[in-house]
Amino acid sequence: DVKVTQSSRYLVKRTGEKVFLECVQDMDHENMFWYRQDPGLGLRLIYFSYDVKMKEKGDIPEGYSVSREKKERFSLILESASTNQTSMYLCASSPRQGHGYTFGSGTRLTVV
Amino acid sequence: GQQLNQSPQSMFIQEGEDVSMNCTSSSIFNTWLWYKQDPGEGPVLLIALYKAGELTSNGRLTAQFGITRKDSFLNISASIPSDVGIYFCAGMNYGGSQGNLIFGKGTKLSVKP
After folding, report:
1. How confident is the model at residue B100 (pLDDT cuts 50, 70, 90)?
2. Chain A residues in contact with B97 (beta carbon < 8 A)
């Protein structure tokens, strides 16, 4: 069964901490994405990547960075966590363009 | 970024009722997708539509790709309690950054108290 795995289901971090959210896919997909989901705002794209070591900004990249050193792994980094980054974070992957995404189960991050 | 208009935002269902939701866009798309998100989980693909006018079913779910390529609808027949969740539409075009999915804000289905 193909999968997108997010390393943590729930995380609680303190303001100012550096936070790493990890995502791994086993489908040999080219494209990977990070979204955040907030009530009433839907899914908002933070960053995406079409290839190893490649990254592009989505709609709300401020306060975030990403790393893609290997094809199967796409990491989201909160350089200095803030309370307004409390959210549900979803990772997704897809084959080359024109295909739907497969999502992970999400990481619910709380910044206190 | 670009957004799709998805309606209704929320609705309450009673077991056995039929449910309809739709999505509209000011832009045309080559592909329409419908996802369902159960509470505490990531979205899961329900139906993919690739051709204008296409009508596709998946069990009790039926979705259509509008002829104008600017809209799509999803129907659920004879709803059951496990249908609750958030349903997202998504549109996509091929090529460059346009190959990314554009999501609606979701329709939240709940059970009538």
Report:
1. confident
2. 56
